[in-house]
Amino acid sequence: MTIAPALHAVLGSGPAGRALATELVRRGHPVRLVDRSGGGPEIEGVERYAADVATPEGACAAVAGATVVYHCVNVGYHLQVEVMPKIQEAVLGAAEREGARLVVLDTLYPYGETHGAVMTEDSPWNATTRKGRMRAELDARYLAAHREGRLSVVLGRSADFVGPGVLNSTLGGAVFPAALTGQPVPALGDIDLPHSYTYIEDVAAGLATLGEHPEGEGRVWHLPTAPARTTRQILALVEERTSRPLGLTVIPEPRPFGPFGEAFMAEYAEMFYQHTEAQIVDSSAIEKAFGLTATPLEAAIDATLAWYGELLAASQR
């Protein structure tokens, strides 16, 4: 008798969800990619599925038959404090009923202001902002559910994303198109401070690895992240590769720019400390435990510029 491979359900089809679905297929897993529409570009080997995982019914339908569930869902920035707890409740309940393991894509927000200290998995959770406290409360509930034996849970924390398909990041849609077309390039805060970025393919590899290794359960892991460099150094890499000088526009305080409108920046203002103090992520724990290696920033920038170049070319056809 042939036993079918275990289904992996990825909730959320943003850059992380799409990259993770592709990585899981590459590793030989059947994959269901879930969002509210069930549409989007076809990914070979991936079943697209429509469900609203903010509801118990939608979450149960989304994870039906899955052995591992990956929570990569995000919502509009101004809706996060209200909506993310509802999604957590629905997804936790559905994964518990299905008997599935739950892998959660997480942020650095629970740490709050670190005053430049290197962030490890043992760093204290000192968030004081609305969104930081909300994320810390969600994470405490995830870990409590694991301790209580309701289901197996593991959290993978990422720094700001960079990479193909990443638009809504401070190193995304506001930077690369402008760099490629000679437009002003915005840079937030103090650009001479180190700032970690996690390559989107490393986000995918880290989450997929946590999904495959039950021995990692019950804790937070930092996803593979290249050593931090200053924003100025990262933009110098972009400048070198585009062979044109970047006209930097430094944004010293939260105000609208590029794809980030007034509503977004009003919500982001409380998180702007991330650009006025060093943001340094240490991901050595997951790298040593599972033999992972973070992609060098040079390679990440090359891949990102190539993707944006193709995107711009396609828009001009």
Automatic annotation (TrEMBL):
Gene3D superfamilies named in the record: NAD(P)-binding Rossmann-like Domain
GO cellular component, as recorded: cytoplasm
Alphabetized PANTHER family for the sequence: NAD(P)-BINDING DOMAIN-CONTAINING PROTEIN-RELATED (PTHR48079:SF6), PROTEIN YEEZ (PTHR48079)
A Gene Ontology molecular function term of the record: aldehyde dehydrogenase (NAD+) activity
Name of the protein in question: NAD-dependent epimerase/dehydratase family protein
Annotated ranges, domain NAD-dependent epimerase/dehydratase: 12-216
Species assigned in the record: Streptomyces arboris
InterPro entries registered for this protein in UniProt: Epimerase_deHydtase, NAD(P)-bd_dom_sf, NAD(P)-dependent_oxidoreduct
